[in-house]
Structure formats: C-alpha cells, structure tokens
Fold:
Amino acid sequence: MSISLDNISKSYGKIKALNAISFEVADGELFGLIGPDGAGKTTLFRILTTLLLPDQGQATVAGYDVIKDYKNIRNQVGYMPGKFSLYQDLTVAENLNFFATIFGTTIAENYDLIKEIYIQIEPFKERRAGKLSGGMKQKLALCCALIHKPQVLFLDEPTTGVDPVSRKEFWDMLKRLQQKGITILVSTPYMDEASLCDRIALITNGKILEVDTPKAIMAAYPTKIYKVSASQTYQLIQDLKTYPETHSVYPFGQYMHFTSNKTNFKPQDLIRYLEEKKHTDIEVIETVASIEDTFMELSK
Amino acid sequence: MNTIRYIIQKEFKQIFRNKAMLPIIFVMPLIQLVILSNAATFEVKNIKFSYIDNDRTAFSRELIEKFKVSSYFDVINEFPSMKAANSAMLEGKVAVILEIPSHFERNLLRDKRTGLSVTIDAIDGAAAGVENVYINQIVLQFNQKARVKLMPFDNQGALPQNIDTIPAFWYNETLNYKTFMVPGILVMLVTMITLFLSGMNIVREKEIGTLEQINVTPIKKYQFIIGKLFPFLILGIVLLTVGLLIAKLLFNIPMVGSIGLLYAYTVVYILVILGIGLFISNFTDTQQQAMFIAWFFMVIFILMSGLFTPIESMPYWAQVVTEFNPIKYFVQVMRMVMLKGAGISDIYPQFFKTLAYALAMNGLAVLGYKKVT
Structure:
C-alpha cells in the first residue's frame, strides 16, 4: 500500500476538520479525493505530507509512519500545494534547480521524468515564475514536485482556477506519470474530474462518504434518476419541490435532476402535474446517475 | 554544504532582484547617517536672546555687545518692558531675557555691586542649564573687567570667582559631538537593517506559501536557517563598511583602534540581531506583525542604549534592563575601539556578553522553528 489511513482525526479548536478517516491507496494508483471547499481535503494532505500532526489515528505513506518516520517520507513524496508556492522572483530554471538541490539531486538525473512537462515551459526558462500564466505556473510546480523522483505525488486541487483545455492536458500528464509507477493522490472540487481517477473517495465535512471506482459509485445509485426541463426554470424548481412524490431535486446544467420517493414512479404523473402548473415544453427523461448525483445523495 | 550554498545564492538573487528593497537597504541608512549625524546634536546654539536695557549707558551697551558677538546667542529683540518680554517668552519667541536695571553703571561704579535679572525658558531643562552656564560665563568675563556681581533670577548662582579651571577633553579634544554621535548612529543603522530584514524574511516565505513547500523537503533546519541568515550577516558587514567610510571621509571621525577587532565584534553582534529576527519570525504569521514587533524592540533598544542619554543617569531598574540590550554593548565597543583605541582585552566583558547572547538567541530561534505544526 502506498498510502494508508486508519481512523485519522484532526480538530481546529471546536471544528472537526477530519473525523475518523480511513482508506487505502494501492501502489501506482491514481486516487481522487472529491469534495467541496472546506471538506477537509487540504488538512488531510498536510497530515500525509508530514506538515501537520493528526490528533488521533495512524497513517503511513510509502510504508513510513507519518509521525515517526516523517524524515523518510519527505524524501519519498512530492507535494504540490493548492496555492502556487514557488519563488515568484526566481526564474523557471532557478526554481527547478533550487528544489533539485535541496532534494540532493540534479535536473539532469531525473530529466526523463519531467521531460514531457518541462519542454512545454522550457522556452520560458529565463522568465520569473511570478510572470508565468496560470497553466505554466502549474506545470512548473509539477516539475518541482517531481524533480526528486518521488514514489507518491500529492496534488492539492491542482486544477482549481485553470482553464478547461489546460485541465484536460493536466489530467493527461497525470495519466502518463501514473504509467511511470508513481502513486498519485489528487484532490479536486470538480466532480467531472472524478471519472478520470482509478478510484475516488467522496469527502464532505471531514467525513468519507464512499470509496470506490467512479463506475461502481455511479452504478450504486439507489433509484432511477430523471432529468426534467421546462420553459420556466425557476418556477420548475419551486413546483418540483412542492410535488408530493419528490425525493430530491437540484439543478444540473440546463436540467433538473429529479428522483422520486415512490418505487413505482411514472414520468407521466409528473408531466401531468407540471402541466397543471401551467408549464410548457416539458421534458422528463430517464438518465444515468453521475458522481455529482451520488455525492448529493450521500451528503444529504 | 551544497544545499546551504544554494540557499545563500538564492537569497542573494532575491535580494538583488527586489528593486524596491535595494535602495531601502543601502541608500536610506546612509542618508540617515549623514542627516542624523549633522542634526542630532546636544550643543545648545542659536539661543534666542532678548534684553531690556533700563540703564542705557556705556556699561550696559558693552554687556549686550558681549552677547551679540557670542556665537551661542542670537539677539532677537530689545523689549521696552519686562511685561512685553514675558509675553514674547510665552509665545516662544525668545528663550532668554536679560534685564539690566536702571542705575546699573552708577551702582557699579559707586557701590562696586549691582544686580542683573536673567529669565530662562526652562521647558527643556537640559538646554536651560547649558544656557545658564553660557550666560554666567559671559557675565563673568564682563565682571572681571567691571567687577559686577551677577544675581541670577533664582538667586542661586554661586560663582567661583578666582579659580581658573582649564579642562582637557580626552578622546574628543574639540568636544565635537559628531565624533560622539556618528559611531552610535552607525550602530543603530546596522542593527535596524539587519533586524528588520531577518525578522521579515522567513515570515515572507510563510506569507507567500513557499515555506510549506520547503518544509516537505528533506532539508535540515540548520541548513535552512544558516542559508537564510548568512546573507544578512554579509549585508550588515557591507553596511558597516560603507558607514565607516562615510564616517572617515565625510565626518573625519578618528579611528584609533583596530578595525579588525571592530569587524570581529560586529560579526558576533549581528548574530545576536539575526537570532532576534529569526525568533520574531517564528512567532508571527505576517510581515506586518513581524515589523511591529521588531519596531517595539528597536525603540526600546535605541532609547536605552546610551546612544542619546547616558545609561548612568537612568534609574537602577532601567540600568538592569539595559544589560539585555545588545545595542548598548555595540555602542560601547564602537566608541571604545574607534575613539579610545581599546584592544581586545578592554572589550572582553562586552564581547563575551554579546557572544553568550548570540548563542542563547539563536538556540531559542532554532528550537522555536518547527517544520511541523
């Protein structure tokens, strides 16, 4: 096991940031930690990267205990914090050199690992890191986190605030790094990125809701789910909420995702109800549950 | 070793790339040195002098003439009455009023004695004392010729009449206040710059988040701290060098003692300041907090250093407190080595106290710096 957590808890004063978290990440796995802001993702990362001590529970990273063997862990992991934290007044090359040096290595030694990413920012290597675009900064940060050939890579919300094209590129890079045998733990608030992971853990309010493959999580959705649309979207939500057979309803793109509390629910009943409420262009279509649906259902 | 070297290199790059900081580090202190050394004087000069001459004789005019030629007095005005003079003093227009009584000349010639009334604005007590001495000296000279007995306003001026004292001022023969002030101000500037920079440096990494990235690396605490602080030691030394050059070339301050000894002591001293700076860094989260705490210590250190006011005249408890003031030792050593030519054995007490202080501060700072929270 590359990462294992057993009953990890951490409180800040009265706020319980993490509440008895347990899960395991296998060697070479691309594992996603999916949850909204404030779910406790960063706290979990800081414990696993030995920056923060847990109040209770045990955790190991690359086979080392996060409390007792923290020195070994620091040699084995790469960490990319959510906030860009390289030296803005040093150039791209200087930043990379700096981190290579303090890890006791050189750029040349592990160049093959970062090559693919580094060649994209190499034209700007004399530019100061603070003057790079968001996507470039992120690539540089990834290079710096990889320069010592870590066994485990921690990426805390790497795609937050990054444009959709760069986000896709970034996930492609992660896939390729995974093929080189690096275990990756990545957190994200974007549910659509969850399906790109091997396995995911859904986390909210410091608690793990579910740990499984994205497919299994979607398949395990308990009831049928319908997407509903009509011309008056706002009125539609209000009316769906007052509909007696409604179990849950929330906006999803241009549709409402609707589930019923009745096992023998018939879409025609809903259409009739909406017509009575003077809605036009009514559509009620059965659809597949997404990670987001599962998340909303579980965190209810 | 490689790691430390690289961190030092990185720190220097960052210092020299910060275009706003460079002038703050080098130009501002030197401007302060030049301005403060010229302005922060204890000499009482340009005293605003006024008089009321009720006698209007050759004698009274001669006495006033003596004040007019003195470089210490600016004769502002002659008042027709004491009332007008008093209201001028109330407004702060004059600092000294000399009233010459009517029949001044006649009484002097006939009775061999007369009185003079002197009123001094004593809001600044120290300056008033000095002014009183100057006035007495001038009247005394006049007296030697005319044998006038001065009667100060408060009637307490006991004057030695026939004893001449000729003082010899050692180490600063001409009583040049710059000789006294420049080494002290130089100490203040070296301290300020090194304390502020080191105090804010690690906090800055905390603020921008780079410390978090550093903390997950296998870098050792001592490597990081040495790498961080060494550049400021160099900066402090460079600042001292430039300051000494200005002291020599611009103010012609005598440098009697060994410059090597001065530098050796300065290195130990800067270690104390860097330790304090690091200590502040550990317990603050923003540069702003660090700055205010550094100021708090700086003001106490400067005012209780003996730079502006002698430590001997402080109350006993304050004198005890000054034992923990590194600036006090540096001011003493600077003045002793530069002006008196003190050797290593003369500054043993200061040297060892500073060394102990450096070890204690840096020890505390290293213990206080935690990579894990």
In short: The two ends of chain B are 27 Å apart (CA to CA). The CA atoms of residues 45 and 346 of chain B lie 36 Å apart. The beta strands of chain B are 47-53, 73-78, 96-100, 117-120. The interface with chain A takes residues 2-3, 6-7, 10, 13-14, 17-18, 208-210, 212-219, 371-373 of chain B (CB under 8 Å).
